[in-house]
Amino acid sequence: MYVFAIYSALCLFFMRRYEARFINVNNYLLNRSNILAEEYELSLGGTLILNEEEETVNKILMHWKEKESDEFFNNPQYFNFSKHYFTYKNHIYKSKVYQIIKRMPKGAALHLHSSLMLHVDKLIELTYEDHLYACYTDDHLDLQFSITVPERPCPLEWSLLSELRNASNDIELFDSKLKTFFTLYTENEDIMNSDINFTWNRFNKVIHNIKSLIRYRPVREKFFYKALKSFYDDNIMYIEIRTGLSYLYELDGTIHQGLYLAKLYQQVTKKFMEDYPDFVGVKMILTHHRKATLNKIQTALELANKLKDEMPEFFAGFDLVGQEDIGKPLFEFYPALFEAKDRINFYFHGGETDWFGTSTDENLIDAILLGSKRVGHAFALIKHPTLLREIKEKDIALEVNVISNVVLSLVQDVRNHPLASYLALGLPVVLSSDDPGAWDADPMSHDFYLAFSGVASKHADLRMLKQLVINSIKYSALNDKGKTKLFKIFNRKWEKFLKEVIAMNN
Amino acid sequence: MYVFAIYSALCLFFMRRYEARFINVNNYLLNRSNILAEEYELSLGGTLILNEEEETVNKILMHWKEKESDEFFNNPQYFNFSKHYFTYKNHIYKSKVYQIIKRMPKGAALHLHSSLMLHVDKLIELTYEDHLYACYTDDHLDLQFSITVPERPCPLEWSLLSELRNASNDIELFDSKLKTFFTLYTENEDIMNSDINFTWNRFNKVIHNIKSLIRYRPVREKFFYKALKSFYDDNIMYIEIRTGLSYLYELDGTIHQGLYLAKLYQQVTKKFMEDYPDFVGVKMILTHHRKATLNKIQTALELANKLKDEMPEFFAGFDLVGQEDIGKPLFEFYPALFEAKDRINFYFHGGETDWFGTSTDENLIDAILLGSKRVGHAFALIKHPTLLREIKEKDIALEVNVISNVVLSLVQDVRNHPLASYLALGLPVVLSSDDPGAWDADPMSHDFYLAFSGVASKHADLRMLKQLVINSIKYSALNDKGKTKLFKIFNRKWEKFLKEVIAMNN
User: Fold this and answer.
1) Marked catalytic residue, from A54, A240, A324, A352
2) Do A21 and B339 touch (CB under 8 A)?
3) pLDDT more than 70, % of chain B
4) What is the strand order of the sheet A349-350 is part of?
5) Between chain A and chain B, how many beta carbons pairs sit less than 8 Å apart?
6) Are residues B392 and B427 in the same domain?
7) B155 and B263 inside one domain
8) Any catalytic annotation for residue B339?
9) Mean pLDDT for all residues in chain B
10) A129 shares a domain with A101
């Protein structure tokens, strides 16, 4: 009996120890999964509930995401997010995740500069238009449509591009050389990895070259129609373009200023919507270069006022553009902007910089204080806890352009893009592509792909993608009626997309 | 009278409008400076109050910081934080900010791997010791101290290094070739910018080569003394080393295992403290490679227990080491670690990765749940809002090693290092240098310089630097008595430093 009592006591003692340890270990696992669940729920799209079909598609998507992520992890020689986008961009097309994202309806593209929307392959088609003269050396290109030889100075001489092309032995080679003037794409890693000022100099040249092609009114019309088509084909249903509304010319010498281009964009959009009734439209954000004087900004704001009165449906708001680091900060213009802010909606670029604590970095403060509806890039926001709180409280959307930030020398490894944190914090992110034409990217699919496979957590799934699309509609400049229409079309396309992915996989 | 009334009313109307605008604009400026002030105060060191002398030094420091920052901004061809540390490391010495930081007493270095603390120039002196045989080809080096030719296999043949050196036509050239085996430093940008696996392979070879030199007991003694001296000369007053306590050998074939090396480190430290009485000491964090089996980890934890009992003053805690991405996650060992955690202090590496949502990334969760006193690197923490909250609440220090993260291919542009956000959030950061010997960096000054001039806000000043030093003492494994002693010595050195900077500038 005594022995039994001792045995029982010992047994109880060890059971309790075992139990205590078991409870502790269970607690550990519970705490751990609670943290993971809390972080997932907080992250962008984390509270969305998927229906049965969505769950099926999600399984397919996540199967490929995991498989490809393991491949990249194990074979950095073939696909390596630590390198520049140009080194792996042509591999993206093979990705199954990309192929699913490509088909996915992606809602709206809200941060685009109008002249840089079109892929160089499509741009080159426009150089086959009649009457195009070129002033052309190895590192200089100027274009002008004209009946006679342009009178503007040219370092060598103006020649009809068609004649140059025909005189070349190899048209394909000629065109591929011509393309280099219209794109930042390069296979030279030294150029890829140059500093921001060098890159922006190259970028400004590309902008100049493209603009010299599309300043001719008939070509601009075709250019914009093709651009809308390429976004539409990439499953984008609504677009907001940033444009400085510069002049256009006709062959007869007529010059169109100011509102003309806005109206042309509107007409082309109307035509496009007739041809593709499930495209919801375009709105315009008037821009001005940030190197301007206060006077020029005031004049631009007056133009914005006029646009708002004359084209209230088409006009969305105002922004400043150009390399943020070396341009003037918003603060320099704040009295004029402050006065205009109750009438004009702002969509300011802010914090497109690596320099913490500089005036570029502090553009974020002014964008927020000036009531900017969204902030463009907001790359530096992650370094500003107070501004992060303001952004969240005021529900200001962040227009994130991952590839742009790589190509324009802000960050090299997309996995270090602050978007990862913005997604984890569930901030109101909208993805966009800034100038996809200038870096030979898809209109929007490459940016979605990189954000999903390169930047976001391995656990981020269809919920995140869907939330990004929802955000692009929610934070657009559309009125409620427009948003409802866009949501309706999106929902229809989304169902079709789900069925397609399931069918593809059967 | 009527006209006067109208005039007065009008006047009042315009005055009120003017006043309202004036108040608004003033409000704007007030809001703006409040945000800036709030962010400054939240940031690391933001609440420190400087005395008069410190204010003077701060003015000198900030004068140079601003001047140099403008220079780098305007001349990216000479100094460019967007590039790899190796491209600008030799320019750092010219910086006045660096020269001030170099003189600054920097408290403690808390994240160091014992074999990689010594600069290659000092390491090379040790290759002049007698009896050193080398097995040496263009891309392979193995070293052994021996009376006779070593019996271990060698692809070519074992030769006395002294004979090889004497037989070479150019000893300087011979040594500079020899150095390449002991360092990751390279001028080849392709190698600098390789992927993480490639870099870690190079790194593991460097570790192998250095270890083959310092496995010989008398050389290890000299090595460690020289290492302490180099940190001391860089104004570091206390050190915590991570070491796996591998074996040492003597010329007569004796092998020393286990505790021997710990005791040797302790003896050398004692000798060093006798020679330099204002050096406060060394503590040891026992490490094991993270590719180990659960069994091996359990054995290592038993050794930790033993160390704790036998050398309670010297032993600080336990950690796992090796490339985190391809090693096993903490979670795989958690039952053993969980059981040990109430007896052994942990100082785990966590989140030394770019891969968000992987098991490496989630080492951060386990480090926190296992009660890690500090977290090594915590590079990925910025992507984890819940864990950021936990770190703050539990006051867990982050051991940040900026240069290490660049050299070991986590991030290229230091301005994109998450340390910027950790500093802005006022998290308990301690700076360290991980393996400064392996990348030819100063023991600690280069890391302080980069954190201050490259990573932190342009507004971050002497307060931040002082807080980093305070943190390094506060979050060390020293007991209260030790911390008090270290603070006392620091304060004395700090006053001397202030006077020196002021004198330099007069």
Assistant:
1) A352
2) yes
3) 95
4) A349-350, A374-377, A397-400, A429-431
5) 157
6) yes
7) no
8) no
9) 95
10) no
